[in-house]
Amino acid sequence: MIRVKGLQKYFFRHKRNEIHVLNDMTIDFPESGLVVLLGPSGSGKTTLLNVIGGLDSVQQGTIEFDDQQINRYKSSTWDKIRNESVGYIFQNYNLLPQLSVYDNIALVLKMVGIHDPNIIDQRVAYILKAVKMYPFRKKKSTQLSGGQQQRVAIARALVKNPRVIIADEPTGNLDSKNTIDIMNIIKEISKQKLVVLVTHERNIANVYGDRIIEIKDGQIIDDHLNESDHEHNVSEENILYLKDMNQITELGNSNVKLSLYNDSDQVIDPVNIRLIVKNKTLYLDIDSSLTKVRLINESSNLLVKDEHYVKKNKEQLLETAFKTDMLDNKDVHKSFRTIVSIKQIFMLALQKILYSSRKGKIMLFSFIMSGAVIALSIAMVSATIIPDLSNMRYENNYVRVRQTQFSKMDYDELVAYSDDDAKLYVNTLGTIEISVLDPLNEDKALFKLQYSKGMFQPADSEITLDIIDHVSRSKIVKGRMPQTHNEFVITSELADQSIQTQGAEFGVWSWDHLMLEDFEISGVPVKLVGITKSDRNIVYTTRDFANMIKPTSYLTQAPIYVGTLNATIIGDHYLDESLITQGQLPTGDQVIVSQALYDALYKLPSGQDWPKTFDDFDYTISGVFTDTERLIVGSNQIIEKARYDKVSSFYVYSSRPRALVSTLEADDIEAILELDEQTNIFNQATIQARITTTIVTLVIIGFTLLGFYFIMHSSMVSRIYEISVYRALGMKKTEIFFSFMIEILILSTVTSLIGYGIATIGLIQSSNTLIGMFRAFLVTPLTILIGIIILYLINLIGGMFPIFLLLRKTPAQILAQYDI
Ligand code: ADP
Ligand code: MG
C-alpha cells in the first residue's frame, strides 16, 4: 500500500555542510505487519519516516500511497492523507499540554469529521481502557509519567483507526517495563495494520519486527523478514525474585519477622535495623554500610515475588487485551467542520487578555498604544491630504478669468459669453480694510477686522469685498441683510477670527459686542447689521456702496486714464448735489466730473450746452462739481466697466459657473472655477507638508507593523509546539491560519480599536482648542472609517506574516524548529 521509490533528500543542498540524508531509498511496504527501520542515530530514520508520513518533502523520488502517486510534495494532499490514513506516534509523545487526556484524543476524532459526542465518548473510553489510561482521562498530560503519556499518544494515533501507524522510537524515553507494555500494544495493532516503527535498539527489532530494514548513512544496507524466535531479554527490573537470591538470615518471634537476602555472593557488613512504632507510624532506624535504601510499598512500583524468574517466550510477552475491531469508523457519520470553533477561539483570545502574564499585559498595552498611534497619524495625514477649503474667498459660483492686457475681450463680449445669465456679475472690487473705531476718539481705529486662519493659508489674508446679492437671506445667522448703502454684513468666520485675534483684547467677546461697534471702510462710516454663515473672509455691502468707496488694493486704486488724462472714477452715491456748479446729475452713460478734471480737459471752441462731449474724453459729461482731485462720478455700470478695463484677472459670478468655464475655454480664454483654483493653490502650498507628513506616517505605520510582527512572532513561537502537533496530526494550514486570523481580529478589537477610539475622541476634543486652529489633525467620519480599516489591515498583515512564514514550512521543519 505504501511504496517509496528512489528517494533522494539532502539537507543544506549545495552547501559545504550538505547532508545526504536519504540516498536512493526504495521500499515496498506490505498491507500489514510490523516493519522496523533499524539504524544508528543520525542514519536518517526519522527523516524517512517523516517523508512516508508526508511531514517532509524529498528532492527526488516518488511515493505511492494506496493508489495515489505523489511526485511533488503538496501539503494539502498530505494533510488529507495524514488526517485520514496515518497515525503518528512520536518519541516525545507530542501531546497538547493544555488539553486533558480525553480531549487530546477527542481532538483527533473531530479532525476526521466525527462530532457526535456519544460516539466520541464511546471511542475515547474504549481506546483509553485498552491502553489502561481510562482512570487518567481527566488529567492533563503534564501530570503523567513518560509511559503514561506514550500510552495516551498511542491511543491518539489509534482512535481514528488509521491504515498506517508510524512510530518514531516510541519507547525511546521509557523504562523496560513500559517498553514491553507499549511494544505489545504496537505489535497487536500490526496484526491488522501496517506499522512502521523506527528504533536504534536491535533487541526491539529482533523481538517484535516482522521485517527489519537496516539503514546506515541514508542507505538501506539490509532488508530481511524476521523469522527468528527471539526472546525478549529485557529483564523485569522492577520485580525482585527472592528464589534467585541467597537467603542469609531469617529471624522471628511473635512480634517481628526479619529476613536478609543478597543477590551476590559477596559478604555484606552487618545490617543494624531498629524498628520503632510511634503514633501508628513505623520508623526504621538503619545503620548499614549500604547507603542506598528503597522502600517497597504501593507507590514504589516495585514487586517482591517469592519465586524464580522465568524467561517468557514470545507469545507470553505479546499478551495484550487490545482489539482494533471496536474502532471501525466506516459507518460513522462524518462532517467536516473547523476543529476549533470560532467560539473557542474567542474564549481563548479573551482568556489571553484576562489572564495574561506581565509580558502579555505589556503586549496588550502596546496593541492599545498602536491603535492610538494609528489614529493620530491618520488624522495628521488627513489634515494635509484633504484640502482645507475654508480659505476660499468666494462661493462656488465664481469663475476666475485671466487674460493678457493686450488680447483682452470687451466687457460686452464677456457678458455675451454668459448666455443671458441674469446673475452675471464681474467682481473687480479687490480688497478692503475695515476698522473698529475708538468710541473715545472717533478718528482713531481701535483695531481692524482680521483673518488669520490655518497653517497653510495663502499669504494675502486681506478681506475681500463682495456685493450683498451674493448672500442668501437664509444664511444670515445673526442680524439682517443691509438696507442702505452704508450697512454691511460679514461672514461668521471673519467675525470669529476678528474676535479671537484682537477683538477680545478690547472687550469684544461676542457677535453681539461686535455688532455694537462703530466701523469705517476707507474713511466712510458704516454699520455692521448682520453675520452670514460662511468659512470665508468676506465683507458684503450693497453694490452702490461697493462702487463708491476707494479700494485699497493697488490695481483698482491707480488712476484711470481717460485719453491723455488720469483720474479716479467712483460711484455716484459719493456725490452731494449741492456741490454741482454746472450742468446736472448724470443719467445713463453720462458722467459728472470734478472741477479739477474739467479744467484739465481740452475745451472745444463752440459754446456747447450740457451735456457736453470732448475729443479727449470718452464719456459724455453732464456737469461739474467742486473738488480739487481729478474725479469722475458715474453709474454702477460705467464704473464697473471702467474698472474692468484696468484689470486682466477678475472673478465672474455666474449661476452656471461650469458652463461659463467651458465656453471661455473653448475660445482659449483662461478660466478656472474658483473652487478648483483655491484647491490647487492649497494643494501646492501643502505639497511639501504633505510629503513630510506622509513619510512620518509611513514610518510610524511601519514601526507599528514591525511591532505587531514581533509581538505576534513571539506569541507564535510560544505556540510552535502546538502548531507542529496540529500539523503532524493532519490539521489543514488554512484552518490554523484562519484561527490565528480570528484571534488577531478579536485581539485588535479589544485592544487597538479601543486605543484608536480613545485617541480619536481626544483628537475631536482638541480640535476645539488651539491645536484645532492650526488644523494639524483632521477627524471626520470618513477618516475614522479609513483609519479603522488601516488598523485592522496593519494588525492582520503584521500579525499573520510570521504565521504565514511558519506555515510555509513542512510539518517536519516546524517540529525540528521546536526541537531547537
Ligand atoms: P535518525 O532519526 O536516524 O537519528 P535523522 O533523520 O533525524 O536521523 O537525521 C539524519 C541526519 O540529518 C542527521 O545528521 C541530522 O543531523 C540531519 N537532520 C535531520 N533533520 C534535519 C533538519 N531539519 N535540518 C538539517 N539537518 C537535519
Ligand atoms: Mg530519529
Automatic annotation (TrEMBL):
SUPFAM superfamilies: P-loop containing nucleoside triphosphate hydrolases (SSF52540)
Any one of the GO CC terms: plasma membrane
Record membrane topology: Multi-pass membrane protein
Database matches in PROSITE patterns: ABC_TRANSPORTER_1, ABC_TRANSPORTER_2
UniProtKB keywords: ATP-binding, Cell membrane, Membrane, Nucleotide-binding, Transmembrane, Transmembrane helix, Transport
InterPro entries listed in its UniProt record: AAA+_ATPase, ABC3_permease_C, ABC_transporter-like_ATP-bd, ABC_transporter-like_CS, MacB-like_ATP-bd, P-loop_NTPase
GO molecular function, one term: ATP binding
Spans through the membrane: 362-386, 691-711, 736-764, 784-807
Protein location: Cell inner membrane
Domain spans labelled ABC transporter: 2-242
One matching Pfam family: FtsX
PANTHER family: CELL DIVISION ATP-BINDING PROTEIN FTSE, LIPOPROTEIN-RELEASING SYSTEM ATP-BINDING PROTEIN LOLD
Assigned protein family: Belongs to the ABC transporter superfamily. Macrolide exporter (TC 3.A.1.122) family.
Protein name: ABC transporter ATP-binding protein/permease
Organism of provenance: Peloplasma aerotolerans
Classification of source organism: Bacteria, Bacillati, Mycoplasmatota, Mollicutes, Acholeplasmatales
